[in-house]
Amino acid sequence: MTGRLLHEPLAGNFYAVFPHNLMAGMFGAVFLYAVLALALGAARFWRDVTPGASAPGAKEEATRNALALTYLDGGHGDGCNEASDAFTKARRRFHHFTFYGFMLCFASTSVATVYHYAFGWQAPYALTSLPVLLGTLGGIGLLVGPAGLLWLNVRRPPLHGDASQRPMDRAFIALLFLTSATGLALLAWRDTPAMALLLAVHLGVVMALFLTLPYGKFAHAVYRCAALLKFNIEKRLPNKLALGAD
């Protein structure tokens, strides 16, 4: 809109660079496509595993397991093996930073959407506003978590994982980290002549993240949640083996 990526300060008005409808249309379409692709994959998975009808309490326990990342405790509460045979909870902690950082950023976008369409409050929002506070906290989580996970991934012995999956793992971690880093940089310098350039870089990283969501490491979150629900349904089913019975 300004005709260049370096400009006079625009008071943090992103829409003076890219119109709101353009951004909402592009990113909304790509995000909905990613959601559809993930949903189709999860539905096929669910049909293949056929866990049976949901039992009372199964969904609630599966949700608690997913939110607490219960099974990243190594199955015994001491954590996972990383650079040595010693157990550590580092991977679980960095996953928590990453997961809740992502959710806070999603919440920030959702609140901003409500502000825009329901109340007519248009960006830029004040630094003390709810969208900015949520996004800042989420951004910090998406710096700490991915940085820690990448550090663990680099130090992990080759036999602790599938080497062919390593590029996908690291690319996803890098995208999450760059999404946060470019977003926080944009927030810090949104009132400067570099805002348009920072905005373009940030939107490019976010678009790359959205486009790869169904095909990269992110997909494991959807299938893990489905597997947790399957497990909690099946463990409530009657034991057909009748082991120990007369």
Mean pLDDT: 90
- Tell me the structural class: mainly alpha
Strand order of the largest sheet: 1-2
Beta-sheet strand percentage?
A: under 5%
Mind telling me the C-alpha Rg?
21 Å
How many domains? The number is: 1
Query: What is the H/E string?
Result: HHEEHHHHH
Give the overall silhouette.
globular
Helix content: 55-70%
> How many separate helices?
7
Explain what the structure shows.
This protein is an all-alpha fold. The chain has one domain. It has 7 helices and 2 strands, in the order ααββααααα. It has a two-stranded antiparallel ribbon. Helix 3 (90-118) packs antiparallel against helix 4, helix 4 (130-155) packs antiparallel against helix 5 (166-188) and helix 5 (166-188) runs antiparallel to helix 6 (195-212). It is globular, with a radius of gyration of 21 Å. The protein starts with 19 loop residues before the first helix and ends in a 12-residue tail after the last helix. The mean pLDDT is 90.
Which features would summarize this protein structure in a list?
246 residues, mainly alpha, two-stranded antiparallel sheet, 2 strands, 62% helix
Summarize this entry quickly.
With 246 residues, the protein is mainly α.
SSE order and pairing:
Blueprint: H1 20-49, H2 58-68, E1 80-81, E2 87-88, H3 90-118, H4 130-155, H5 166-188, H6 195-212, H7 219-234
Antiparallel strand pairs: 1-2
